[in-house]
């Protein structure tokens, strides 16, 4: 066991944990003031529900080594067998229990991201049930496919350094399904952010936490980790540039919301690739990530007519998809000997593997998410009533207000 690596991973875990409160502020500032607290509660609920589930059964289903190619088994239920001693299948340098906690923060964050799609209209009670079922039936299998010992995408050779498939495509696709099933918000076309200062603070916390997300996925502080560090910041910066240039050209004004959204788009796009590509590739990936996600948020959503309230699919689904494809294009073993060469480095097979991983994730997540939400709808009300939506979910579902000033 290496003390330096353990300290790194402890800090990285704290950074990723911070991203979920960051999501609460990022999302909370973008909704109407009457729904600020209800939107934040989805993230707080994710922290509570998924943290407990992960300890009980989630980690075992995702990462236990005695399962099959699709899902783990129950060997580590209740963290039985998960101790301070390292597990060599994942890292011989850090405690197994620390690796478990690092992965817990990913599972929590993924559910919190989904909530942006149905903000301002889904009952908290229905969300809690959804979070429980989705974490077990969707997140755990996909995490096992990609990162678990024997997972079929891991064995195939598809690359996902820090969660492009596992976190971003899965949360984005799930969000899209929920946005369609739950339906549009009342007066969705007139909804606008009530406090972009909160969104800025939340967005910067997410960017800060993302260093733990991506760098920590190296599980040690080596050259690959430092490359991931550089690539993460670089792609976030060029994501801003890509988004703002398109926005400036089309809407004639560069906005703060656009800048923060561009940063998130760049971060999402670089996540699967960050430990496999050069900094120059990160510039391209981030820039195109910002531009492509702008298209997803402002063009695709309008054309297809779904109400993804805070653009969970537009940022995470589309950004993660581009990131997975970009990994198949730009990956090089000169950056990471444990990776592979992509199309631009002479091997087109990696691109095909990435496409297989993306399509499989889309299909599995969409189908199972649809079944889960339809099943929940058979036993309880999913959507707030028209009266609750009109008055705001903060006061009607939670009995509190974010603001008391008369002009809010």
Which labels suit this protein?
Ammonium transporter fold, single chain, mainly alpha
Task: Give structural notes.
- With 408 residues, this protein is mainly alpha-helical.
- It has one domain: Ammonium transporter fold.
- The protein is 67% helix and 0% strand.
- It is built from 14 helices and no strands.
- It has helices at residues 3-30, 36-63, 96-114, 124-147, 152-156, 164-182, 196-215, 223-251, 256-270, 279-304, 312-330, 349-379, 386-391, 393-397.
- The longest helix has 31 residues, at 349-379.
Topology:
Layout: H1 3-30, H2 36-63, H3 96-114, H4 124-147, H5 152-156, H6 164-182, H7 196-215, H8 223-251, H9 256-270, H10 279-304, H11 312-330, H12 349-379, H13 386-391, H14 393-397
Helix pairs in contact: 1-2, 1-3, 1-7, 2-3, 2-4, 3-6, 4-6, 4-12, 6-11, 6-12, 7-8, 7-9, 8-9, 8-10, 9-10, 9-11, 10-11, 11-12
């Amino acid at each position: 066991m290496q003390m330096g690596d353990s300290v790194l991973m402890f800090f990285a875990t704290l950074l990723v944990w911070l991203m979920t409160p960051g999501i609460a502020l990022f999302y909370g500032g973008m909704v109407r003031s009457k729904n600020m607290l209800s939107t934040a509660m989805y993230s707080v609920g994710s922290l509570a529900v998924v943290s407990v589930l992960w300890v009980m059964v989630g980690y075992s289903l995702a990462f236990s080594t005695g399962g099959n190619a699709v899902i783990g088994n129950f060997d580590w239920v209740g963290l039985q067998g998960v101790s301070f001693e390292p597990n060599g299948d994942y890292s011989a340098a850090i405690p197994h229990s620390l690796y478990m906690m690092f992965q817990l923060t990913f599972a929590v964050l993924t559910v919190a991201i989904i909530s942006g799609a149905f903000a301002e209209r889904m009952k908290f009670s229905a969300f809690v049930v959804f979070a429980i079922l989705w974490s077990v039936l969707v997140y755990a299998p996909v995490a096992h496919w990609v990162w678990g010992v024997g997972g079929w995408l891991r064995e195939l050779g598809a690359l996902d350094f820090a969660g492009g498939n596992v976190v971003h495509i899965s949360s984005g696709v799930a969000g899209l399904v929920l946005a369609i099933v739950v339906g549009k918000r009342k007066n969705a076309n007139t909804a606008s952010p009530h406090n972009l200062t909160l969104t800025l603070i939340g967005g910067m916390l997410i960017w800060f936490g993302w260093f733990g997300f991506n760098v920590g996925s190296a599980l040690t502080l080596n050259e690959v980790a430092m490359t991931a560090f550089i690539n993460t910041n670089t792609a976030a910066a060029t994501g801003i540039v890509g988004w703002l240039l398109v926005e400036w050209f089309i809407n004639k004004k560069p906005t703060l919301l656009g800048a923060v959204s561009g940063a998130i788009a760049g971060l999402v796009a670089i996540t699967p690739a960050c430990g496999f590509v050069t900094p120059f590739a990160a510039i391209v990936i981030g820039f195109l990530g910002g531009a492509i996600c702008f298209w997803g948020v402002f063009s695709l959503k309008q054309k297809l007519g779904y109400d993804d309230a805070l653009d969970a699919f537009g940022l995470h689904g589309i950004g993660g998809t581009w990131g997975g494809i970009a990994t198949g294009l730009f990956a090089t073993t000169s950056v990471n000997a444990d990776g592979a060469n992509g199309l631009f480095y002479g091997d087109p097979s990696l691109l095909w593997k990435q496409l297989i991983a993306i399509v499989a994730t889309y299909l599995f997540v969409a189908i199972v998410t649809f079944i889960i939400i339809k099943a929940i709808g058979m036993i309880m009300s999913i959507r707030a009533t028209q009266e609750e939506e009109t008055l705001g979910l903060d006061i009607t579902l939670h009995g509190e207000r974010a603001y008391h000033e008369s002009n809010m």
